[in-house]
Amino acid sequence: MARTMPPKACRVGRMKATVYVVDPDPDERRWIESVLAPSVAAVVFFADATALLAHAPIRQDALLVAATEPCGAGALELVRELRRRGVSLPVIALGPHTAFRTAVDIARLESTDFLERPITARQLRAAVHKASKGVA
Amino acid sequence: MAEPTVFIIDDDEAVRDSVKELASSVGLHAETFRSALEFLDAFDAARPGCLVLDVRMARMSGLALQEKLAAMRARIPIVFISGHGDIAMAVNAVKAGAVDFVQKPYHEQQLLDAINAALAKDAALRAATGNDRGLAERVAALTAREREVMELALKGLPSKVIAKELGISHRTVELHRSRLLEKLGVSSVTELMRLTYDRRPE
């Protein structure tokens, strides 16, 4: 009888990064925390872009997970403003299929990634791992 | 400098015609090609301009052409247009250097804006490389520290590592980074890498 090997679990190990999260949806926030908290140093939530921008100092080992819903322009402006301030923290933007335009605009900025929702826990962890390589 | 050309590559004749008409309507010179291979046959890196390129084409896709041009070190800016764009593909294309990725059916002004941005980028790249003294002068105008940060950033080192190398704070590295990019007139280290790639001594 043929044996199929189960896929190797992707063990990223604990990353030193602090993950900032801007996502207005409480269910999504809960999910993100459950996925990332075991793998990173800390997960810090901000109510919105303004709160993040007002937060000082931005940790040097941080990266940002930002939802583009409900306002794609808000997420884009947030990243632009961060870059304008010389803050190069890696950004992972999460949005739906309809956020195509926002995805392209965010991708044009440095140190960004865009993942189309819904995403799996593995995808999110892998994206955070990849982004944290620059700061770990 | 010769007048720039919008090179349009799409296996759909109706799209070739409408993009050409759109370009012509604002006074831009345009040429059309039925396939990526047809374009490559005629390609001359000395001709200024940009590409408007569909993703899905028989034999050689738009993304494959983008890779091929990168391998040839040809820097002609690319605007993708596609009815089949999924987000992951578009993000990859942009990360690989595409100026924009426009969904079909396209808004005319959006495509025009993308074409204009691509032509401006091509002109800036040609001015920078054509005017060696320009970039060299701007580099010479950097402070010693900014030059150090630039050299390390061009090696692909992230700010935190540069900070360790130079014995300064991460925050200071970030400030130097954004100042030197501004002084050199480039929007990112990646763009600077592309500009300096040709001129680096062996």
Provide tags for this entry.
heterodimer; A: 136 residues; alpha/beta; 5 strands; 37% helix; 19% strand; B: 202 residues; Rossmann fold; Arc Repressor Mutant, subunit A; 5-stranded parallel beta sheet
Low-confidence stretches of chain B: none
CATH homologous superfamily (4th level) name of chain A: Response regulator
Helix/sheet category of chain A: alpha/beta
Strand order of the largest sheet of chain B: 2-1-3-4-5
Mean pLDDT of chain B: 89
Enter the CATH topology name of the largest domain in chain B: Rossmann fold
- Total domains of chain B: 2
Q: What is the SS-derived class of chain B?
A: alpha/beta
Provide an overview of this structure.
- The complex is a heterodimer of chains A (136) and B (202).
- Chain A is α/β, with parallel strands linked by helices and 136 residues long.
- Chain A has one domain (18-132): Rossmann fold (3-Layer(aba) Sandwich).
- Chain A is built from 5 helices and 5 strands.
- Chain A has helices at 26-36, 49-54, 72-84, 100-107, 121-132; strands spanning 18-22, 42-46, 62-67, 91-95, 112-116.
- Chain A has a 5-stranded parallel β-sheet with strand order 2-1-3-4-5, sandwiched between helices.
- In chain A, strand 1, helix 1 and strand 2 (42-46) form a beta-alpha-beta unit.
- Chain A is globular.
- The mean pLDDT of chain A is 88.
- Chain B is of the alpha/beta class and 202 residues long.
- Chain B folds into 2 domains: 5-130, Rossmann fold (3-Layer(aba) Sandwich); 132-197, Arc Repressor Mutant, subunit A.
- Chain B has 10 helices and 5 strands; from the N terminus they run E-H-E-H-E-H-E-H-E-H-H-H-H-H-H.
- Chain B has helices at 13-25, 36-42, 62-71, 87-95, 108-130, 132-140, 144-154, 159-166, 170-184, 189-197; strands spanning 5-9, 29-33, 49-54, 78-82, 100-103.
- In chain B, strands 2-1-3-4-5 form a 5-stranded parallel β-sheet, sandwiched between helices.
- In chain B, helix 7 (144-154) packs across helix 9 (170-184) and helix 8 (159-166) packs across helix 9 (170-184).
- Chain B is elongated, with a radius of gyration of 19 Å.
